[in-house]
Amino acid sequence: MAQIKIRKGHSLKIAGVPENIIKENLITTQVSMRPVEFRYTKPKLTVAEGDRVNRGTALFFDKTTPDFNWASPASGTVKKIKFGARRVIEKIVIEIDKHEDEYLGDSFTLEQIAALSADRIKTIISKANLWHLLRQRPFNRVVDPKDKPRDIFISAYNTAPLSPNLELILQGNKDYLQAGINVLNNLTDGKVNIGVPAKNSIKELNNLSNCETHQISGPHPAGNVGIQIHHIAPLKPGDKIWTITIQHLIILGKLFLTGKFDPTIIVSIGGPGAKVPTHVKTRIGASIGSLIEGQIGGGDFRIISGDVLTGRRVEEDDFLGFYDTVISILQVDRSRPFLGWFQPGSSKRSYSLTNSFLTFKKQAFNFSTKQNGSQRAMVPIDAWENVLPMDILPNPLYRSILAADIEEMEKLGIWECDEEDFALCSFACPSKIDVGAAIRQGLDLMWMEG
Fold it and tell me: Which among 151, 159, 271, 284 could disulfide-bond with 329, CB atoms 3.0 to 4.6 Å apart, if both were Cys?
């Protein structure tokens, strides 16, 4: 067991932290799958508007891997298929039936799962159309089932702003958690690594078998799986590492223990704009409107599917992202104070960088959409380096990406990078540069060079 203390980074103290309760019996009448979320895939539909689908039915597949399908998170009728530019499939909307038909496959005990062969496990996951629960580094894309990962990593340490309480998520799910680990252990010749809080009080994370547990402490982004990979077993050129979120691991475990695909997840609703910050029990791809009903009052607010550092802006008629478990509600602030640049430490109206990084105040801030400036020339004053807990030089890496210098990018460690690990650099940047977007631009270049 490794004990890893992350020193660089920062945990944003945003007002509207969700209460440690779960709101159940939430009515969701529609769900959606968004093929555009899954990088470097070429989706082709297997359904049309008006078709009836069951939970687990294939909605689309990857043209480059025809046996690779994506499962419907609900039973119902395909209400709408939205296309974007050049007929890109943006989303598939399903109207949920009152009485759902669900996927039913073989079920096993924990001991039987531990004894399953890798080929049998791959067949079961393929039949359930659930390979997209797993992602692969580098590129943070959906895995290729034909690959054998060097290692598999799971983070059970939430540090992102307004993240769900892991104790609520894992309560009563110990067997499903262990079942998922047993499955993953048979898919690699390496290790299944799980990062847990150093001061762990969650009993479900104790005494797990067929995995190696690592105690993690420190501010955000210590909970990011990419940061944990970097400190435990860094990714090297040619390596493939698989990752899975803790909630998707539970779904995978349920598939093998019960033979059912259960898309239930816990989502946190928080932020200064939320009337009653809380947790809700819902399902993958749920409608945003059903999740935030009664949460927003008067005024202008922005809704984000995901945390404030890495999420995407959505409207009430949109849907939760497949990998998202946070809904952040922020107040829109378009004010422009006179000579605002002359008051860098003022926190009267915004979450100031000075107060964020140079003081020890513990009160929560009413975080808003205010950017406090626009993009300008890069100022190399170690702002990125101070919040990036990786042995990577972000400034030279950023410059090599702008120059499209593939060889230099490789030397500087692009293989280990993902935009979520650099999101705090974007937040801290005095030049308002979206560092995370630049990292994705570099990864896209590497993928095209392939």
Answer: 271
Q: Does domain 3-14+104-258 have CATH number 1.10.540?
A: no
Q: In what order do the strands lie in the sheet with 141-142?
A: 3-5, 212-217, 192-197, 151-155, 241-244, 135-137, 141-142
| Number of Cβ within a 10 Å radius of residue 146 | 9
The whole-angstrom separation of Cα 318 and Cα 311 is 14
User: Cα separations (Å) of 382 from 163, 357, 377?
Assistant: 28, 13, 15
Alpha-carbon distances of 177 from 12, 62, 172, 247, 255, rounded to whole Å:
29, 29, 10, 9, 11
The three-point CA angle 438-63-444 to 5° equals 10
Measure the CA–CA gap between 9 and 261, rounded to whole angstroms: 37
Architecture of domain 26-96: Beta Barrel (2.40)
- Strand ranges, E, within 51-191: 52-53, 58-62, 65-71, 76-83, 89-96, 135-137, 141-142, 151-155
3-state secondary structure of 115: helix
What Å distances lie between residue 135 and 140, 143, 147, 283, CA to CA? Answer: 6, 5, 12, 19
Per residue in 178-192, pLDDT (tens digit) is 999 999 999 999 999
Q: What is the per-residue pLDDT across 115-128, written as a single tens digit (0 to 9) for each?
A: 999 999 999 999 99
Task: Give CA separation, 18 vs 73, 270, 285, 348, in Å.
Answer: 25, 5, 20, 24
Q: Are 270 and 326 in contact (CB under 8 A)?
A: yes
Q: Contact at 8 Å (CB) between 277 and 329?
A: no
Tell me: the pLDDT tens digits for 361-400? 567 878 888 877 778 778 778 899 999 999 999 999 999 9
CA dist., res. 299 & res. 333, Å (int): 10
Q: pLDDT grade, residue 333 (50/70/90)?
A: confident
* Domain chopping of the chain, boundaries: 3-14+104-258, 26-96, 385-449
Query: Residue 175 corresponds to which tokens in the numbers above?
Result: 């067997």
Where b means 16+ CB within 10 Å and e means fewer, 417-437 reads bbbbbbbbbbbbbebebbbbe
Q: What is the mean pLDDT of residues 313-321?
A: 96
Judge if pTM exceeds 0.85.
Answer: yes
Q: What is the DSSP letter of 376?
A: -
Tell me the C-alpha distance between 340 and 333, whole Å: 14
| Residue 405: both structure tokens together | 């210098």
| Distance from C-alpha of 357 to C-alpha of 387, rounded to nearest angstrom | 10
Please determine whether the domains at 3-14+104-258 and 26-96 fall in the same fold group of CATH: no
pLDDT over 70 for what percent of the chain?
94
